[in-house]
Amino acid sequence: MKNKVNYPAIITFYIIAVALRYLATKTPLLDAVSNDFLRVVLRGIGPAVGALVAFSVFRIKPVLSLKGNYKQLIAPFALYWVFPIALICGIEFFMKGSISFVAVSAILVYGLMEEIGWRGFLQQELKSLPPIVSILIVATLWFLWHLNFDLTSSNLLFFGIIILGTWGIGKVADTTASLLAVAAFHSLNNLFSELNGLKIMILVILITTWVVSLIIRKRYFKVSLA
């Protein structure tokens, strides 16, 4: 466990994350980008760039990786990326005769860009703080990063979701140490921002499959360490 919080690294990370978010969402900078996939990813790239700069400048060794604590990269990739893409696109093709492969993939990559920063960097840098304090700091900075300061009930609800997500995705990070896993959980909110009966069914299948796999994995590690 870390003995102290590296505040200069966190400040550096956050300034870069917010600056790039502002450029991507509050200026016409991305108007010249015609590729929809790239446009989506660039809107969320700030936390990843900020984290990578902080890792490099302050010589911090990342705790999370794409593979995490799985033996092979294929395991988290298949479970958290191939499975949801195949499930969503398969059902969509069966129901509508179309496939939103690019859109679903873009949302997952967008989530990965954010999670390199929020869980891959910030959560790890705040490990020495009490859990509730760490959760509130990460949630608040994550919420403010969206640059949406309207005093509305929906925005207050969004902040509540951010707090819950910070706690839940943080648990996923602690269990798997995999950026692919946390990115997948992160992306659920964007994939299912508008719900209907079919989307609820897909969401339940994904969450149930992933939560069961996490429970099994956590118990497996307890047994292997005993």
TrEMBL record:
Question: Any one Gene Ontology biological process term?
Answer: proteolysis
Task: Supply the InterPro entries for this chain.
Answer: Rce1/LyrA-like_dom
The protein's UniProt keywords, in alphabetical order, are: Hydrolase, Membrane, Metalloprotease, Protease, Transmembrane, Transmembrane helix
Segments passing through the bilayer: 7-25, 37-58, 79-112, 132-149, 156-185, 197-216
Which superkingdom does the taxonomy of this entry point to?
A: Bacteria
Q: Which residues form the CAAX prenyl protease 2/Lysostaphin resistance protein A-like domain?
A: 101-192
What GO annotations for molecular function exist for this entry? endopeptidase activity; metallopeptidase activity
Keyword Transmembrane assigned to the entry: answer is yes
Taken from the record, one Pfam family name reads: Rce1-like
Q: What is this protein called?
A: CPBP family intramembrane metalloprotease
